[in-house]
Specification:
Strand content: 35-45%
Radius of gyration: 13 Å
Number of helices: 2
Largest sheet: 3 strands, antiparallel
Shape: globular
Number of strands: 3
Oligomer: single chain
Distance between the termini: 27 Å
Strand order of the largest sheet: 1-3-2
Helix content: 25-40%
Length: 86
């Protein structure tokens, strides 16, 4: 995993721990992956690590929705994930 993906996982984990400490019961988090080959089947770089970081803070992934879009910098896939406290 590269520097940027490590940083994204660290931020997701930190925010998940803070939400858990506040006593939140639901956490909705948006993960964005940059992809120039969104039409192919392949691992989504860094996404598993980010979801794992949130789940390791006491959350469980319950639902997920995906959307693709294009920006000046390329194609993007966004995953909106709903986590619940374990």
């Amino acid at each position: 995993m590269g520097f940027i993906n490590n940083a994204k996982a660290d931020v997701a984990g930190k925010e998940a721990r803070e939400a858990y400490a506040r006593g939140d019961y639901v956490l909705v988090y948006k993960f964005i992956e940059a992809s120039s080959t969104s039409k192919t089947t392949a691992p989504m770089t860094g996404i598993a690590e980010q979801i794992t970081a949130v789940e390791s803070a006491g959350w469980m992934l319950q639902n997920m929705a995906a959307a693709e879009g294009k920006a000046l910098t390329g194609e993007r896939t966004a995953l909106v994930c709903l986590f619940r406290r374990r």
